[in-house]
C-alpha cells in the first residue's frame, strides 16, 4: 500500500465520521476526485449532500463554491462576464463562481437550458467562453450536482448529452437507525461546540500523484473483456434476452466504457488493492451506467427503470 493510498483511506475514514450513513456518497466523491470526473447526486433533502462537498473541501487544498440553480439564473451568473471599467475605457473579465476547484451545483434541474449549456462546456471542456475569449478552469475541478426526486414541478430535465458528462449518477437513501443515532450525537456535539476531529489537508499535487497510481492499477485482460461485453450488452441486449431488447432504446456510449474502467481501478486502489476484482466493476455499474442507457417506451409502461435493466444484465452477462 502506497503513501497516497493510505492518505485517501484516512480521508475516507474521516469523511465517514462526518458524513454518517452515506458510505456510497463518500466513496463517490473520492472516486470522482481520483478520476477527475463529475457527480450527479439524487436524494431527498436533508441527506448531507451539501455537507459532503463542504467536508471534502475542508480536507483537501481546494476552494469550494455553492451555486443555487433557479429558473431566473443566467449563464453569466455561473461563468462570469466582461465588466466595463470607465476610468480606463476598457473591459475586464470578472470571473464567476465556476472558477473554483469544487463546485456544488444545487438543484441543477431548476435552471433553464442555456444555463445548463454553459455548465456543460465547463464540465466537458474545462473552459469558459465569453465572446471571442476562452478562459481555462483550474486543473483540479469537480462538479457535484444535486437533484431533488420529490418536487419536479418547474424543473428542466437534463438532456442526455449533459447527463453523459457525469462520471457517476448516485442515488442516496435514508440512513439506517444506528446511523441516525450517530447523526444526532454529532449534531448535539456541534451545538455544544465540542472540538471536531482534525484532518491534515491533502495537497493538490498529492491528488494528481494519486490519479497516476489509479491509472496504473492492474486490470486483467479477462476483466477488461467482461467490461466491454457488458457495455455491448446494453447496445445489443437481444444477444442475451429478446424481451430485454424491447426495454432498451439506446445503450451506453464509449464514454461509459472509459468511465467504468477508470472508476473500477479507483475503487480497487481506494480499498488498498493492487488489482481490480469483478466486484469492483459490478458494484459501480449502476452508478456509471444508469444515466447512460435510455429505457424504451415499453420499459416505462412496465414501470421498469434503468436500474432494473442493469440488474437483469448483471445476471445475464457471464463473468470470466
CATH class identity of the largest domain: Alpha Beta
Number of helices: 14
Cα end-to-end separation: 27 Å
CATH architecture descriptor name of the largest domain? 3-Layer(aba) Sandwich
Write the CATH fold name of the largest domain.
Answer: Rossmann fold
Strand content: 15-25%
The total number of structural domains is 2
- One letter per element, helices H and strands E, the order comes to HHEHEHEEEHEEEHEHHHHEHHEHH
Query: What is the share of helical residues?
Result: 40-55%
Oligomer: single chain
Poorly predicted sequence stretches spanning 5 or more consecutive residues: none
Side-by-side strand order of the widest sheet: 2-5-8-1-9
Question: Which structural class fits the helix and strand makeup?
Answer: alpha/beta
CATH superfamily heading of the largest domain = P-loop containing nucleotide triphosphate hydrolases
Shape: globular
Number of strands: 11
Mean pLDDT: 89
Major β-sheet annotation: 5 strands, parallel
Characterization of the model:
The chain has two domains: 3-191, Rossmann fold; 217-316, Helicase, Ruva Protein, domain 3 (Orthogonal Bundle), CATH 1.10.8. The protein is 48% helix and 15% strand. It contains 14 helices and eleven strands. The strands form four sheets. It has a five-stranded parallel beta sheet. A two-stranded antiparallel sheet has the order 3-4. It is globular, with a radius of gyration of 21 Å.
Main attributes of the structure:
single chain, 320 residues, alpha/beta, Rossmann fold, Helicase, Ruva Protein, domain 3, 5-stranded parallel β-sheet, two-stranded antiparallel sheet, 14 helices, 48% helix, globular
Amino acid at each position: 500500500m502506497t503513501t497516497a493510498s493510505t492518505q485517501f483511506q484516512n480521508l475516507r475514514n474521516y469523511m465517514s465520521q462526518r458524513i454518517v450513513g452515506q458510505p456510497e456518497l463518500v466513496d463517490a466523491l473520492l472516486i470522482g476526485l481520483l478520476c477527475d470526473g463529475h457527480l450527479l447526486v439524487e436524494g431527498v433533502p436533508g441527506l448531507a449532500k451539501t455537507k459532503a462537498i463542504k467536508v471534502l473541501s475542508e480536507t483537501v487544498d481546494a476552494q469550494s463554491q455553492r451555486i443555487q440553480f433557479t429558473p431566473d439564473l443566467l449563464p453569466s451568473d455561473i461563468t462570469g462576464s466582461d465588466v466595463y471599467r470607465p476610468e480606463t475605457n476598457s473591459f475586464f473579465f470578472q470571473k464567476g463562481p465556476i472558477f473554483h476547484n469544487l463546485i456544488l451545483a444545487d438543484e441543477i434541474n431548476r435552471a433553464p437550458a442555456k444555463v445548463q449549456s454553459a455548465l456543460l462546456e465547463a464540465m466537458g471542456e474545462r473552459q469558459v467562453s465569453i465572446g471571442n475569449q476562452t478562459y481555462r478552469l483550474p486543473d483540479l475541478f469537480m462538479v457535484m450536482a444535486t437533484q431533488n426526486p420529490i418536487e419536479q414541478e418547474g424543473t428542466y430535465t437534463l438532456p442526455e448529452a449533459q447527463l453523459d458528462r457525469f462520471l457517476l449518477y448516485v442515488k442516496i437513501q435514508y440512513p439506517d437507525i444506528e446511523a441516525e443515532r450517530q447523526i444526532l450525537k454529532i449534531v448535539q456535539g456541534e451545538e455544544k461546540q465540542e472540538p471536531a476531529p482534525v484532518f491534515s489537508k491533502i495537497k493538490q499535487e498529492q491528488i494528481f500523484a494519486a490519479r497516476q497510481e489509479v491509472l496504473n492499477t492492474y486490470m486483467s485482460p479477462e476483466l477488461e473483456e467482461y467490461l466491454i461485453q457488458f457495455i455491448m450488452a446494453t447496445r445489443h441486449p437481444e444477444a442475451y434476452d429478446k424481451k430485454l431488447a424491447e426495454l432498451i432504446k439506446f445503450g451506453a456510449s464509449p464514454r461509459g466504457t472509459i468511465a467504468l474502467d477508470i472508476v473500477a481501478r479507483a475503487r480497487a486502489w481506494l480499498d488498498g488493492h493492487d488489482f481490480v476484482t469483478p466486484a469492483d466493476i459490478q458494484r459501480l455499474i449502476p452508478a456509471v451506467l444508469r444515466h447512460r442507457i435510455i429505457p424504451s417506451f415499453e420499459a416505462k409502461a412496465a414501470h421498469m427503470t434503468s436500474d432494473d435493466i442493469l440488474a437483469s444484465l448483471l445476471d445475464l452477462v457471464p463473468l470470466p
